[in-house]
Amino acid sequence: MAEPTRTLQQLRRDICGELRMPFFLLFDNYSTMTGTPTTTALYDSKLTQPDDYWNGDSIYVIDGNAGGNVRRVADFKAATDEANPEFAFSATPTSGDKYEIHSRWNAFEIRRAINSAIREGYDAFAEYPIDESLIVKEDTLEYPLTITARQVLKLWVENPASASVQGLASGGAATYLEDLDAVFADDAYNAWKISIYAGTGAGQIRVVSDTVASTHRILVSVNWTVSPDGTSKYLVWNPTQQLSEWTRLNAARFYPPDFPTTMYLPGSLDAFVGLRFRIQYEKGPAELSGEADTTVVDPSYIMYRAIAFLHSFRAGDNRFDRATHLQEEERYIKKAQTYLAERGHRGPSQTFWQESDTRGGGAGPVNDPMGWRG
Known about the structure:
The chain has helices at residues 8-18, 22-26, 107-120, 299-315, 322-343, and strands at 6-7, 31-32, 42-43, 58-61, 70-77, 82-85, 98-102, 130-131, 142-144, 151-157, 164-168, 171-173, 176-178, 193-198, 205-212, 217-220, 233-237, 247-249, 253-255, 262-264, 277-282, 294-295. The chain is α+β, with helices and mostly antiparallel strands. The radius of gyration is 29 Å and the shape is elongated.
């Protein structure tokens, strides 16, 4: 089961509710424009407050032609349920477009505070995904990493069952690999994996979409980035049939140690060419920019810490309420720290990397599942 996530939109509304912004005491999350909005007038029949009630607050248009616009309210007219932005929207909204009104802090400031909280909660709420996009290549000890990792925690290599096909391609194109020396039955390898482990296109892995006996072709579901040719060595296997659990590798070097870009092996893995590495790594939670962007960082922690950041943004604005903002900043920092101490989770253990793999006789392969070395 995947970790629960929360979107930027949901986090913003959590914060606005916690701060008891007037708009969010009236509406659960948003309201919609009515009538015929213009670039200089927002109408909503549900806004029945007195004249000037929303003056100085900030409109945030969620969707539609002016989606993403933030404008201060210059004037609110009760008679027409009309809010006039300080300057024109970038495009003309339409009836039914969604919007929010934020008090004291606008949507941009709230987003900045949310991302500040995510950055600060990096260690406590890091993600630990698994990547299986890298394959073992022939006579290769150096592998550029395709992931953005703070550090690599564990490394395995695949152990499929013996029903695998290995060969040298005759040629190919973006949508297929061809081997005129092979005998393929129609549909023999549908949904299996195919990789190119040497020659042109080495390092690519795809899912087989079809096998055509008459043309000796294996079709792929996603085009090859580099089309195979007569130098391309390939492997086809059924990923759902494993001979045993993936073999753990303890001998590898990652450089640089933090945010590595390259993996170095102490010796070649000849018995595993074409098969996948499984890499578990630590990844910092991504910052949010779009309304639907999600984070695994705990929403309560984000809410408390983001509100502390919002008050810190305001603490230097003027002397009149500086003390209040500093007091509220401190209060919410304590709430965030207490929550973190009680709910912060620990990540998985990390492999202790060695100079050689003791299970496999030094730098060589751990075993020979395909029987290619005998």
